[in-house]
Design brief:
The protein is built from 17 helices and no strands. With about 450 residues, it is mainly α.
């Protein structure tokens, strides 16, 4: 039997960190909603480490460092790939130390990284490759990796019945923010150059985001003396420590041996790879098709308007049906997107590309936030989500270099898009097999 919100459970169930700087049990409504808002802001704050936040600095970095676009893409590949390999460790850190500690460290790391990158100058090719590989590695590991993973995992820990819907609300807000980020960052760069832009971002991360994490982030309802989805722990539970999840929850090894893990991971990995490549080279991709910088950057806005309702729908859907259904939809929409985006100068193809990208992006949140705890439980969620994130980050490392190679060898990005379409096509088949296994 659960206590009411006015009762005080035994403090043995509550970690000290879960009650500082204030006790979430005293909030007059379920604290998970605060976690949702704070975690969403944390995901948005990772923009400087996301491709949408890096891509607008690409031209400044090539002209400043002396590296070619292909060389910069290779550095991006090395740095991002290295960060992806480390994210499994990051997932274990979240399970051991909690989302608040990891997110705080990631925020400080991201601020330090963008500050360091603001001082880069002209370098020889070998030195430039090393410096930018390290810079991109730190940028991606702290921003795209740990800050995103810890924020997303924290939100998933606080909800069960409404997890899909909650994750979709978070993703919807993030989609608008990510869509607006390139234009806003370009405007910030125009004020006083890319160096000042990165330094302003660093100060904002430390003063605003780090403070918000320290104040509002909480590991889980159990660690704060609460029951998932609402209520407090039973007053007669003795000295039993707070335990997340159940004994039936899958371990990382069990999840990796399960076909369903790969059915939901392959489509998001494909989207991370090709979506990152397209975003990274977005200005040059537009130039290839006769579109200027302002025009091509604005493509992200209609994509967001498509992705938001799809995100909300798939969030509702995944609470009621198999995650394999969403995986199938994501793979199919990516095939459409990849085949159409090489012809944005043709109106019909531009519409198909926007719809395909928006639908794929709308499926992304459900497969990265709600699917994993639904399939494998919460006890080892950090490790399992870390492996999925690792696959996504490694994919995002390969994409820009592969597209740059295509541009260098064929003077076009279209061959890379055609080849990339085979990956989500394979994801559709894998999800179909997983759907049969899930039933």
């Amino acid at each position: 039997m659960l206590t009411t919100n006015n009762a005080a459970p035994d403090d043995a169930h509550v970690s000290k960190l879960g009650r500082r700087p204030f006790d979430p049990r005293r909030v007059p409504f379920y604290y998970g909603w605060v976690v949702l808002v704070a975690g969403t802001i944390g995901i948005i704050a990772s923009v400087p480490g996301q491709t949408a936040g890096v891509s607008v600095f690409t031209d400044d970095l090539t002209s400043t460092t002396g590296l070619t676009r292909l060389q910069l893409a290779i550095a991006y590949l090395i740095g991002t790939g290295a960060s992806g390999l480390l994210l499994g460790i990051g997932g274990r850190m979240i399970d051991r130390y909690g989302s608040r500690v990891v997110a705080f460290a990631a925020t400080i790391g991201l601020a330090c990284t963008v500050t360091g990158l603001s001082f880069v100058g002209s370098m020889s090719t070998p030195v430039g490759l090393v410096v930018m590989s390290v810079g991109f590695g730190c940028l991606r590991f702290s921003g795209q990796g740990l800050l995103t993973l810890s924020s997303r995992t924290m939100v998933a820990q606080w909800f069960d019945r409404r997890r899909g819907l909650v994750s979709s609300l978070s993703q919807a807000a993030g989609s608008f923010a990510f869509a607006a980020a390139p234009a806003l960052l370009l405007a910030l760069i125009d004020v006083d150059g890319f160096r000042t832009a990165w330094r302003i971002i660093a100060v904002s991360l430390v003063l605003v985001m780090a403070t918000l994490i320290a104040t509002l982030y909480r590991v889980s309802p159990e660690a704060s003396g609460m029951i998932i989805d609402g209520g407090l722990v039973a007053p007669d539970a003795g000295d039993t420590p707070a335990i997340i999840g159940t004994d039936n929850d899958a371990t990382r090894g069990q999840a990796l041996r399960d076909l369903r893990f790969w059915a939901v991971t392959l489509p998001v990995m494909a989207m991370s790879s090709t979506g990152t490549a397209i975003t990274f080279h977005i200005v040059d991709l537009g130039a290839e098709q006769g579109l200027d910088q302002d025009t091509i950057v604005r493509i992200f806005v209609p994509i967001a308007f498509v992705s938001v309702p799809v995100t909300l729908f798939t969030g509702w859907l995944i609470d009621r049906t198999s995650p394999m259904v969403v995986a199938l939809a994501m793979g199919a929409s990516q095939v459409l997107m990849y085949l159409a985006i090489g012809y944005l100068d043709v109106t019909v193809m531009a519409v198909l590309a926007i719809v395909g990208w928006g639908v794929a992006q709308g499926c992304f949140s459900s497969l990265t936030s709600a699917a994993l705890p639904r399939l494998f439980g919460r006890r080892h969620l950090g490790e399992i989500a870390g492996m999925q994130m690792s696959a996504m980050v490694i994919g995002s490392a390969i994409g820009p270099a592969f597209f740059a190679l295509s541009r260098s060898m064929t003077d076009s990005y279209r061959p890379a898009l055609w080849i990339s379409a085979t990956v989500p096509a394979a994801a559709v088949l894998l999800a179909a097999v997983g759907r049969r296994a899930d039933t």
